[in-house]
Amino acid sequence: MDANTTLISRINNREAVIGIVGLGYVGLPLMLRYTAAGFRVLGLDVDAHKVDMLNDGMSYIEHISADSITQACQAGFRATLDFSRVAECDALILCVPTPLNEYREPDISYVTNTADAIAPYLRPGQVVSLESTTYPGTTDEEIIPRIIHQGLTVGKDVFVLYSPEREDPGNKHFDTQTIPKVVGGATKACLEVGIALYQVAIDRVVPVSSTKAAELTKLLENIHRAVNIGLVNEMKIVADKMGIDIFEVVDAAATKPFGFTPYYPGPGLGGHCIPIDPFYLTWKARAYGLHTRFIELSGEINQGMPEYVVSKLVDGLNDHGKALKNSKVLVLGIAYKKNIDDMRESPALEIIKLIRERGALAAYSDPHIPAFHGHGVYDFVMDSVALTADAIAGYDALVLATDHDRFDYGLIAENARMVVDSRGRYREDMGNLIKA
Questions:
Q1: Active-site residue numbers?
Q2: At 101, is the pLDDT very low, low, confident or very high (cuts 50, 70, 90)?
Q3: CATH number, domain 219-301
Q4: pTM for this structure?
Q5: Which of 55, 217, 350, 397 ranks highest by number of CB atoms within 10 Å?
Q6: Could you tell me the sign of the dihedral formed by the alpha carbons of 285, 289, 290, 296, in that order?
Q7: What is the Cα–Cα distance from 310 to 322, expressed in whole angstroms?
Q8: Computed from CA positions of residues 422, 424, 345, 24, in that sequence, does the dihedral angle turn out positive or negative?
């Protein structure tokens, strides 16, 4: 029996051991899904603290409950730092970060380091799937050569896939099981194994012709969002100059039943995908002598939005006879989007940095993030401020950067001296409101 037939049979019979490499916002939900589907799952990570927490039935991600981790452990899940246990797994799904470096260029060191870590322990009869967002060609250029170097034949001994993650933390309408899964294989046999691997855990699998097509699919999805958000952010600036409420305009345009998708402006882009993914394609396009002007322009607009919000704060304070320097400013929300605890690439952090650089006394309030210990250029250390009437009244201005549902917006409106609203939460003019 061929290796792919044997592997598919083991998957279909729930005999396969699923290895999840990287237990973060992507890997952890995937682990829970495969565990719930009846598989034994082994989690591999380089963070000893995460491994210990998981094995003790604890969670470090707000929207993933400790109870769900405990149930997974009871069903056989274990986390480990020992990459030699790769040999125990029939499937290895790589869910590691792909950030940008200081020059805004792709940093795939997590991918290559992970591939180097698992390669010595690979054996015939395994499937390796990369889920990390990256540029077209990464699977072919970085994963496959490391497998071949071990004397294994791709498509015969080991089966290689690219299947982009589509996690949306905090989304109550879609989850790992219900979000369709795009899969591209290095060969026809690889794709057959890939379909089998994912269809046992995901409601709908969408096969594409190659790993490159799957890699570009992920980039297109998020570039589509980045470009449209850049457009509406620029429209917001134009509308503001004309005295028009852009949120009213978007809501009105969204009543058109065809040809329009509503995107709403904000203080900039955040998260692990949308602010980063476009630069993966622009970087790769240069290798083909192409300049992706449209994509790069939207990136410039979105990156400039924190500065725009701060400029509206300055204008508002000036109207009240105050300078930004030495003013007390409270930023509401530092997660990159509402109702989650994820701060990756959050524009709120850039807003705080800009406010501090201009000599203001900055603080933040976020019910999902009790403390911020600083990282990278955001080297400040703060604890979240509890929102009481007295606390709110003690600040010269509040900047609404992330509109968590847990904020008491009535309390804020009644007690704030000034609110700079970058999310359109307040639709009616209330005297102390600055729309940004």
A1: 273
A2: confident
A3: 1.10.1040.10
A4: 0.92
A5: 397
A6: positive
A7: 14
A8: positive
- The neighbour count for residue 152, using CB atoms within 10 Å, is 18
The residue ranges of every structural domain in the chain are: 3-208, 219-301, 304-435
Torsion of CA 311, 314, 320, 322, to 10 degrees: -170
Q: Per the structure block, which two tokens stand in for 32?
A: 């829970």
What residues contact 173, with CB distance under 8 A and at least 6 apart? none
* Averaged pLDDT, 368-382: 91
Q: Do you know the residue count of the chain?
A: 436
Distance CA 127, CA 145 (A): 15
Mean residue pLDDT of the chain comes to 95
Q: Count of CB atoms within 10 A of residue 110's CB?
A: 17
Rounded CA separation 413/434 (Å): 12
3-208 and 219-301 agree in CATH topology: no
CATH for the stretch 3-208: 3.40.50.720
**Residue 412: which residues within 8 A CB-CB, separation 6 or more?**
332, 387, 392, 398, 400, 419
Superfamily name and number for 304-435? NAD(P)-binding Rossmann-like Domain (3.40.50.720)
